[in-house]
Amino acid sequence: MFHHVKELQFNARVSKPDPRFARLLLEQFGGPNGELKAAMQYFVQAFGCRKPHPDKYDMLMDIATEEFSHLEIVGATIQMLLTGVNGELKNAADESDLNKMLDGTTAKESYIHDALIDPHFFLVSGGTPTLTDSDGNPWSSTYIMGMGDITVDMRCNIAAEATAKLVYENLMKFTDDVYVKETLRFLMTREVAHLQMFQAALDSVQPNFPPGILQSDPKFSNKYFNMSDGNNFSGPWNEGKSPEMKEEWQVIENPIEHIKETDGLLNEKAKGTDRTDKTVQEVNKALSAERKNEVDKATSPSADGIMSWSDSNSGEKEKKEKKLQ
Amino acid sequence: MFHHVKELQFNARVSKPDPRFARLLLEQFGGPNGELKAAMQYFVQAFGCRKPHPDKYDMLMDIATEEFSHLEIVGATIQMLLTGVNGELKNAADESDLNKMLDGTTAKESYIHDALIDPHFFLVSGGTPTLTDSDGNPWSSTYIMGMGDITVDMRCNIAAEATAKLVYENLMKFTDDVYVKETLRFLMTREVAHLQMFQAALDSVQPNFPPGILQSDPKFSNKYFNMSDGNNFSGPWNEGKSPEMKEEWQVIENPIEHIKETDGLLNEKAKGTDRTDKTVQEVNKALSAERKNEVDKATSPSADGIMSWSDSNSGEKEKKEKKLQ
Amino acid sequence: MFHHVKELQFNARVSKPDPRFARLLLEQFGGPNGELKAAMQYFVQAFGCRKPHPDKYDMLMDIATEEFSHLEIVGATIQMLLTGVNGELKNAADESDLNKMLDGTTAKESYIHDALIDPHFFLVSGGTPTLTDSDGNPWSSTYIMGMGDITVDMRCNIAAEATAKLVYENLMKFTDDVYVKETLRFLMTREVAHLQMFQAALDSVQPNFPPGILQSDPKFSNKYFNMSDGNNFSGPWNEGKSPEMKEEWQVIENPIEHIKETDGLLNEKAKGTDRTDKTVQEVNKALSAERKNEVDKATSPSADGIMSWSDSNSGEKEKKEKKLQ
Amino acid sequence: MFHHVKELQFNARVSKPDPRFARLLLEQFGGPNGELKAAMQYFVQAFGCRKPHPDKYDMLMDIATEEFSHLEIVGATIQMLLTGVNGELKNAADESDLNKMLDGTTAKESYIHDALIDPHFFLVSGGTPTLTDSDGNPWSSTYIMGMGDITVDMRCNIAAEATAKLVYENLMKFTDDVYVKETLRFLMTREVAHLQMFQAALDSVQPNFPPGILQSDPKFSNKYFNMSDGNNFSGPWNEGKSPEMKEEWQVIENPIEHIKETDGLLNEKAKGTDRTDKTVQEVNKALSAERKNEVDKATSPSADGIMSWSDSNSGEKEKKEKKLQ
Amino acid sequence: MFHHVKELQFNARVSKPDPRFARLLLEQFGGPNGELKAAMQYFVQAFGCRKPHPDKYDMLMDIATEEFSHLEIVGATIQMLLTGVNGELKNAADESDLNKMLDGTTAKESYIHDALIDPHFFLVSGGTPTLTDSDGNPWSSTYIMGMGDITVDMRCNIAAEATAKLVYENLMKFTDDVYVKETLRFLMTREVAHLQMFQAALDSVQPNFPPGILQSDPKFSNKYFNMSDGNNFSGPWNEGKSPEMKEEWQVIENPIEHIKETDGLLNEKAKGTDRTDKTVQEVNKALSAERKNEVDKATSPSADGIMSWSDSNSGEKEKKEKKLQ
Amino acid sequence: MFHHVKELQFNARVSKPDPRFARLLLEQFGGPNGELKAAMQYFVQAFGCRKPHPDKYDMLMDIATEEFSHLEIVGATIQMLLTGVNGELKNAADESDLNKMLDGTTAKESYIHDALIDPHFFLVSGGTPTLTDSDGNPWSSTYIMGMGDITVDMRCNIAAEATAKLVYENLMKFTDDVYVKETLRFLMTREVAHLQMFQAALDSVQPNFPPGILQSDPKFSNKYFNMSDGNNFSGPWNEGKSPEMKEEWQVIENPIEHIKETDGLLNEKAKGTDRTDKTVQEVNKALSAERKNEVDKATSPSADGIMSWSDSNSGEKEKKEKKLQ
Fold first, then answer.
1. Residues 282..301 of C with a Cβ closer than 8 Å to B: which?
2. E261-270 — which CB contacts under 8 Å span 24+ positions?
3. Cα E107 vs. chain centroid, distance in angstroms?
């Protein structure tokens, strides 16, 4: 269950109205890398962890709830930046007051221009934040990533935090308001903190590479296809050893020829690796059994076959077990 | 700031896995009338009320937070209905166990069929709820309604609660699980409760008709155009008096002819009403002034010109003032 | 079947081109609260009423057809506001005339700026209205609400009319063209008229609360959960009696504690209401039977089992029956 | 202005309910090639033609209005195919009647399965058509094509009619209902009729190639780049003369080499054509002047500078002028 | 398999940065008529042709690959137009350099304004093209047309090339950069070339009218319904003979009356045509057999029942057969 | 420029038609984690790297081009799985052959059922792949991640490869076709290879944490807010040192109280870290200068001020410089 207190997690402040920056700031309210995306991504991922990984569930819900709280901070800041818009719209019958608002200097032309920059604020939301990005695109759950697998989901979350961090960094270029910058800096920093939490969680699962369970095919896991001809550079991504599996990179310099020679890779051979199909199958089986068992045991219903979500005691017990690992 | 406790607001239970009903239940998780829509609609509307209408802000945040908590209940129920899916997917290397799962009777064909019915559960989410409706459409913030005006927003919320209520009513036809029905009934009932809260809030604002501020033009507010020829019925919507403004309905039996006669209504006359352009303008001005004043006064920055969101004392003060009105 | 006459329902006029206001006006052409949304919402709802509620079908088709006619008025106004854009684009080979257009004063810089404000008009539509909102988002049928139930659909329609009314009210702030304002005022007034028609139709169905058929659970229908802590206001939404069901509001001051005490509300008791589970079930059964019967009787096929849509005589007969009720 | 009569343009009939075919038929109700797409495409295009091309406006509005009428036919057919769904949903309290409906043989399992196939019908629309395609995707105005230029728009409309025709052809494979087939055949035939109308309209504009105004660059208009190596076929698209401009096709057998030799085509030469840059510029200027003049003359405001849409006499006059050309 | 060379097909150049035109040019990068749409439309259509129509497959893949190469040209041009944006964003800590960039004259206000015009460039993409149209809408595969039938798909492709051509024509109005215009002219010309290729391919299939297989119903194929009353024009679309089928157009002057008289067209008679239901059925059968046979023969698996895509010899053989036809 | 050869990169094979698995496999053709998403994500990111990071540009274009080639493999497999669908649709006039197709045993009922499972294949695409996910949602460029910064983009790409890998892993559960599995295994393995390439590229940029340039605020970078009450677990994400910055995690056990005490964190103090505001500002400045300089130098136009994309010699030169670093 969620609960709400009226205070913001960070006491956001604003020096004066600025509908233009409000528009830009929408990127983190309803944009693809914004706070709602983060909150919903972790919230949705958490369901799958509830039983098999209560510690990860706890972490995901902690961070999801914090992201909801950040969404509130961003919305509150936008609302304050839009001060004056709603009151002016309420002045539906009389336009004579129009010149007095927005820092005292804004004429009607400027008011209309602001409306053209973000018509939603002036025509639809009445000066309230809208769940869109900074270009007016509605928020969509297609922004959410997650596969129901910790070794994948944590990598998705690291990416989410990295993008969100950079949006805040970019936003700071477009405001001179020291109070707004103060808030942006807090929010930016929290993305850095969360990124590290997800990294730590990923590291705590072993093995975590490759993501998921099935091992890669040794014939193809260390081949680099030179598909883009011209200036061909080398670097650690195609020379030396691969970073995770430590196989020797093999560059296919001329892929078209190679494909024809190998009957479309059907006759490809493994090279620069010790892994074989046999060792791969063994790992696949062992890891399948272990991970399936973990999930099945944790999610099996109680004796009467009935499942319930709020299960008061099991948490503590699992906590102890977890910490032993 | 939001806070979360691990217990659900309603202790949702499930008798046995049922991926098919899980698919249908998505309608209220990520569908256009579902819990996330409700939560976000009220949450977003709340920002605009924070200063000028702290009592409505309080109500909107109470209900928004409850809807988030309902979203969690729906997600938890779907997760329990999907028990077995994730474990089976973890069994990536070995398919021999496939026949034993899901109530002990389901063969591979049935498993594949379930995957075809909702491929997202089996291919993407790993048996975790997805933020889509029951037909797989991603949640979109276009579902959210709100205009930054209480007399409009409360009507939008009444509509939202009415649709959500009916979706729960319909959902009950498709499950026999008494525990699931118990949860659905709780959720359905809360929509009825919320609907009444929004109705009460709407009634507490006077005048609340027409929504917004500007009065309607007396020439056109009580005309009924018979645009669809054939069997023409009459009812309280085109005979007698209009329900809110108590003007006498005037039926234009033959709109095409009427348009030609009145030069496209430019020469239309008011009939069946006492209102005139003059009385309309007077109301417009008075109400504009009142509503604008209310907003401007409440949202004006403090003496130093700085605005902050968390304002510890003002709430109590406003509360008293509000209750006097 | 639809028919079209070349005259507009309201003879829209424009003083001079204004591509910027044309952009804003798109909100009511292809926006979520605009004329197409209204037209399609009522049109789609009408199908379900055709047989069981021919009087509501008649009303919905009358209003839907009027909304299509309003869509045409809005489009015509936008087209006139864009005068000059298409001709200039046709001047594909020669740019020397560019400075002469648009009120005689517009230089190329201004022309380019207009294109940046609404690139669709200049790059894609050739100066013709586009089916987007004022921020360029494509119209989507997710804007449409309706559940195939009159007690829900009329509430959705009231919300739709309320939002559309306010968009017109807001739009008037952004144009000084008296002819355009005249048209906007007509359109705004019709929303007020339609709102009352839907209210009258809703009132004519009894009982219409709760929407749909199933009664709410007496244990939960009058509880108010104080989910947002801080300044807690009271008002008719949480003190006194609920407006529709007249049950006494019960405030749960500390929901977290309450949830824990009642085992997630499984042990909740009804309070402040006379309704019981038994009376609820009785109403549920009686109303189910009545409403199902009404639909089944009206939609049952003729003796030969064949259904056809255009059924010349039945309408008149039903009309008489309806009026008796 | 639109008008509606209760009779359908084609008296659609249905032998018995079939929710599954109803699902498929949605493709033409709210799908990308369906009736709403066609109606809105021609309706929107019509605005731009109103003044400069009143004859094309007349044709576009005739066909747009017919497509709205077809939308109604499709919706009516879906509604009849869904007979029983709404009545059953109204039976909210009692499930005992469930086995008796839908052709007398359908058990609850089948009812649930139908709901899984199209959950929108059963959970949301209450057995009324929904504005989606056959896979549940909401209708979007991105389906609409049109550029405000007759030589382009007519080609878009030909494509639209061709796709719609084929969808009806495909749909006929999935129903045995002779009445439904009769309706589908009528609708399919009308697409063929409309396609020819648009072809005739395109032919009536000269020159109509290339679409728009600017002539193509003689250096590039007849080059064929062999970008996909392997089995290289020849046909009238890369040997002989191009169909519209009658230039000799020039095949670039090895594009990579050719690009390098010509410094990225900067040094490309015209071949197999008589056109030169000079003749191109002459045509560009002449056609620009002609088309711009046509639009500007037709759309110039009346003496008082005011524009109005409904202009009673001009149509007849323009008609005579048009027919002389 | 695709391959890439670093050189562009056309060596695009830019005189100086222009973020505003970059925004407009996005229309052809990620817009509904842009290069990605064209590339993906032809690429997807190609799959269905691979076996039955290897010559059309070859043409579609040639053009699809060229369109990908054009997408790269457009992206490269946008990237050059955005020069300076990324570097400035990297200057995250220091704002003092801001006034020096972008042609030496742009002050911070202008920088912010550019960000408001296209916030994605400045907040999200870091000065890299985004896959949206010029108004920020994300690219969607709903832009793609195609029905798996050559007689339809070629018509869709003609429409696609026509719209793309006109967008380039329009874009040229909004830049003075001679190098950018040079590139736009190349791209525009290629659309004209492709249009003719698709026309030639359509002409090479006989019969290609009506699109698909089934013949139209003689009762309805030459009727023109006068659905839009007022100024009724005539032209080759409703007088004389239809352009493809050469049937005499029959105008229904008063559709409402006509519908009532013919019982919703159920009693309609064929007029102005020699075709009968019998001749229609004969053509339907013969063409069905021929087209089905063509597809089935080409796609039947080899002797061992296994299908593979890369089939080295068959191409050449088919090429010879094809050319004989 | 792109080039295409008719052979697939991997010679995909299929044992027999299977429209149901074809539906599931769409997830990787047009789904959010599929091959088009990957191809377009790397392709779009590449533009920003072209000048400042030619080695990363080379890698991104290599992998993007390989992903396009994988898209082709997936599409080819789907096409083969759909063998029979197109031919049967061509049989538009005669339904008698229907029972003979699809492995010889499928009756019409099954054919219709397949159409209900994926109506797009049967009604719209004519048995050709569609650019949707496995649930019919159209591909959207909102799937693409990227910020124009290598330290962010590589993390996004790692996430993309991880999700794609798992989708292939999951897909293998739903087919028994050994040839299809062989192809899926190849594709899955390539995701693992690419993931490592992106990891290597990320590691080659130093510093790469935090992503972007600005350092985090020491007051907030190591705080863990316990926002979700109940069972509180600890792990490396909230005890010990943070993985990247090696600061000591500080748990805020009771965030609500803490917020109130610190005036909404305005009075928060740094703890468990050596970093100070001063050191942070120094790093910010130094890194800003370095990264800005790198970009500006690389993207500055040549002496004549003109920029061109294809720049034949510089690549080789840069390559040498790069390798020295």
1. none
2. E263/D11, E264/C310, E264/D7, E264/D8, E264/D9, E264/D10, E264/D11, E264/D12, E265/D9, E265/D10, E265/D11, E265/D186, E265/E219, E265/E220, E266/D10, E266/D11, E268/E219, E268/E220, E268/E223, E269/E219, E270/E218, E270/E219
3. 41
Q: In the 8-state DSSP scheme, what is residue E2?
A: E
Q: For residues A6 and A20, what is the distance between their CA atoms, to the nearest angstrom?
A: 27
CA-CA distance, A273 to A241, in Å (whole number)? 10
Q: Whole-angstrom Cα distance, residue B231 to residue B251?
A: 15
Pairing of strands E2-5, A228-229: parallel
ipTM of the shown complex: 0.93
Q: CB of C234 within 8 A of CB of C207? A: no
Of all helices (H) and strands (E), which one includes residue E225?
strand E223-225
Q: Is F192 in the B-facing interface, judged by CB distances under 8 Å?
A: no
Q: Are A188 and A168 in contact (CB under 8 A)?
A: yes
Q: Six-digit token pair at F322?
A: 């790069």
Report the C-alpha gap between D300 and D311 in whole angstroms: 13
- CA angle, D44 then D50 then D53, to 5°: 115
DSSP B225-239: E--EESS----TTTS
Question: Residues of F with CB below 8 A from D255's CB?
Answer: 1, 3
Amino acid type, A62:
D
Say which of C66, C223, C259 has its CB closest to residue B225. Answer: C66
Name every residue whose Cβ is closer than 8 Å to that of residue D212 and which is 6 or more positions away in sequence: C92, D147, D149, D151, D152, E162, E165, E166, E169
- Measuring CA to CA, which residue among F128, D238, F71 is closest to residue E59? D238
Q: Report chain C residues whose CB lies below 8 A from the CB of E139.
A: none
D307 and C80 in contact (C-beta within 8 Å)? yes
The DSSP output letter for C243 is T
How far off is chain E from F255, nearest CA to CA, in Å? 31
CB contact under 8 A, F4 and D256: no
> Distance between CA B72 and CA B7 in Å, rounded?
10
CA D270 to chain centre: 36
Judged by a CB distance cut-off of 8 A, whether residue A6 touches chain E is no
Length of chain F: 325
The helix (H) or strand (E) run that includes residue F224 is: strand F223-225
F215 Cβ under 8 Å from any chain E Cβ? no
Which DSSP category does E206 fall into?
Answer: S
Extract the runs of DSSP E, i.e. beta strands, from chain A. Answer: 2-5, 13-14, 223-225, 228-229, 250-252, 307-308
The candidate with the shortest Cα–Cα distance to A229, out of F45, F42, F2, is F2
CB contact (8 A) between residue D124 and residue B167 = yes
| Spatial distance between the Cα atoms of A144 and B129, rounded to a whole number of angstroms | 12
F207 cis-preceded (ω within 30 degrees of 0):
yes
A254 in contact with F, Cβ within 8 Å: no
Q: How many CA atoms within 13 Å lie on the side-chain side of E232?
A: 17
Residue B320 burial (CB < 10 Å; 0-12/13-18/19+)? Answer: exposed
Q: Please list the pLDDT of chain C residue by residue as tens digits (325 residues).
A: 999 999 999 999 999 999 999 999 999 999 999 999 999 999 999 999 999 999 999 999 999 999 999 999 999 999 999 999 998 899 888 654 444 444 444 567 778 888 998 999 999 999 999 999 999 999 999 999 999 999 999 999 999 999 999 999 999 999 999 999 999 999 999 999 999 999 999 999 999 999 999 999 999 999 999 999 998 899 999 999 999 999 999 999 999 999 999 999 999 999 999 999 999 999 999 999 999 999 999 988 877 889 999 864 444 444 444 454 4
